[in-house]
Amino acid sequence: MADTTDIEKKSLEAHVELCAERYRLLETKLESMDEKITTLFGVIAELRGMLQSNATKNNDRLISWGVGIIAALVGALGWSAAHLLKL
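RE: above sequence
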């Protein structure tokens, strides 16, 4: 913040006016920060949703691959058992 000026030390009205201007500037900066933080929260929420979606897709993909591999192994085992029983 700006230090007190000589005119503020001599005049209460000048001090009050300068303080009011300082508070207006502070309020403007706080509002700007609030908007930025709100935007940041929105971006974070969007990223979280994307990460959850990707995790779900990866889990579904792993389950599909696992079921496919198990089905192939069971099929190969059944085929081998069928050929061994024919002998």
